[in-house]
Every structure is written in structure tokens, then in C-alpha cells.
Design goal:
Strand content: 5-15%
Number of helices: 14
Distance between the termini: 73 Å
Shape: elongated
Amino acid sequence: MAEDLGERTEQATPKRLQDAREEGNVARSNDLSSALMLGASAVALWFGFGPMLNRLGIAMERVLAEPGLRNVSPGTWQDGVEAVGLAAVFALAPIAIAIWLSGVAANLVQVGWLVTPKALAPKASKLNPIEGAKRIFGSRALVKAALDSLKVLLVVVVVAWSVHGMHDRVMLLPLMHLPAAMLAVGELMVELALRVAAVLLLLGVIDFAWQKHKHSKDMMMSRQQVKDEFKQSEGDPEVKRRRLQFARQIAQQRIASAVPKADVIVTNPTHLSVAIQWDEKTMRAPVVVAMGADHLALRIRQIAMQHGIPILERKPLARALYKQVDVGQEIPVETYEAVSEVLTYVYKLNGKIAV
């Protein structure tokens, strides 16, 4: 009944998952990526805030200590700004690198290495205002908005609780010297960022598990879709049957024209038949002109009997030739002696001179 209704009851096939991946349709949580990036930036600030502040302070001291500042010349201000800017770049570079690496790691953990040009290709459906309205005001969009609101509320609660716990340290800031106060403020901000990142990380892991489940449900297929995909990948069974029948007809035609030219047929005795031809004037070695198994082997023997070609049972030789030689090829060197004995026997039967 489910098959008749087209209900998706089957797990997605590897091909469907691969096609979806190539289009960028994978399970991925933006919350988890944001949490990892925030956590990485907070950790980088935790270890680098002191050196960063020290580097900026040294730059500022050098600028303010320049005698040229009393004359306020444009060149002096330009040099000072360049010095402070360069110090800021070197101070912030480790933090920027940490954020970038965490973003790359977050995507690798979730979806692995994935480059999807198809996802960047323009689609008419994305420009359809009706479809856009459905995405904005649809049930999924409303559920997502509600969940995002709950996440924001949770983060606000964590921030408020953290700030309340930092009250005593905040009240001591006016009593500190400026460098110590700035360092204390940085530590408080990093601590707050780490707490928020921990909450977001927990939410991100939950969201990623949900996205995996949702993606698996969305990728499910109906039985008819599985059958259609099998036909596309493996070929229509009816077409394959016709191809096989056509190939058999060609093989039988080839056998019908090649077997009458053979000097002898060696068999297995019923499963394999190999037709051998030898002409010392035109050939360097005997050649296999036809061979087959089962029904083709029977057909070779039938044609051979119609044309009076000797049929000899030589199991090891028939097996060796069938495995090692293709039709139209010379026999291998290791079978020379066995084939020579067979041909000698056949020529004696026919009254010919043995080769």
C-alpha cells in the first residue's frame, strides 16, 4: 500500500546521498560552526591578550615619545598611525588565524572535504517570490525562528548570570592602573565568551544531531524511486536481456563460420569446446578460431560433427586454452606439446602427414 501511495519508506541509496552531496545538500549545523569559532577566538584571546596588549602599548609609547609630535607635522602623524596599525595587525593575526582554522575544522568535522560548484549555480526556484515566501513564512521557518529565539534567550540568561558573578571584579576596575584595568577587562570578556561558547557548543551538538536525523528523513525514497534508480544505474532488465540475446546471436554466427575451418575440437568434455586450426604455410603456431562454454560448447560440437571435424576429449588442454587464449590468438607456448600430440593423432586419422 505504501508503494502504491509513493510513500518514502526506504533508506536513501549511496547514489542518492552522493548526488545530494554534490549539490551541497548535507547535514550541517551553523550553530556548531559558530560555537567552535567563538570558542577558538576566546581561547586565542585568553593566551594572546596579554602579548597583544603589550605590543600595542609599546607601539603607542614609541609614537607618543616622538619629539616631532610637539610640532604636529603630517609626516609624524602618518608614521605613528602606520606603526600602531602594523602592531595591531601582528597582534590580531593569531586570533584571525585561529578563527579561520576553527571554521575550516568545523566544516571538515561535519561534512568532510566538500567543493560544490552546483550549489553556487543560479536556480530559477530561488528567484521565485512564491517559493521565497514559503521559505520565510512556512512552518519550518516558524519552528526555526522559535528555536532561534529560545537559543538567544538562553544565551542572554547565561550572559546575565555571568555578569552578575563578575560584579565584585568589575567594581574594582576604577581602582586599578590603566594597563592592569585593560588586562582585567580583557580577561572578563574572554571568560564571558568562553561561557557563551560552551552553551553554544552544547546547542550546536544537539542541532547537528537533529540536522543529521532530518537529512536522513528528507533523503528517504519510495520503492518506486529505488527501482527507477536501479534501472538507471544497472540498465533496464529488458534491454539487458535483448543485448545478451544479440551478443549470443553474433557469437553463434561467428562460430558457424569459424568452426568448419578448424582441424580439431578439444572438449572438457561437455562444458567447454575449443576449435583449433593449424596451417604451417600461413601460421607460426596453431590458432584458436572458436571456443565456448555450455550451450555454445554444444553448438561447436554440433557444427563440427556436421562438417566431419574430429572431436577429442582433452580436459586439461581444453581448460588451459579456454582460460589463457582469446578467439583469434595463437596457443601459448606451454600447450605446444599437447596440441602437437592432438594434431598428430588427427592427421593420422585423416591420412595426412603429421606436423
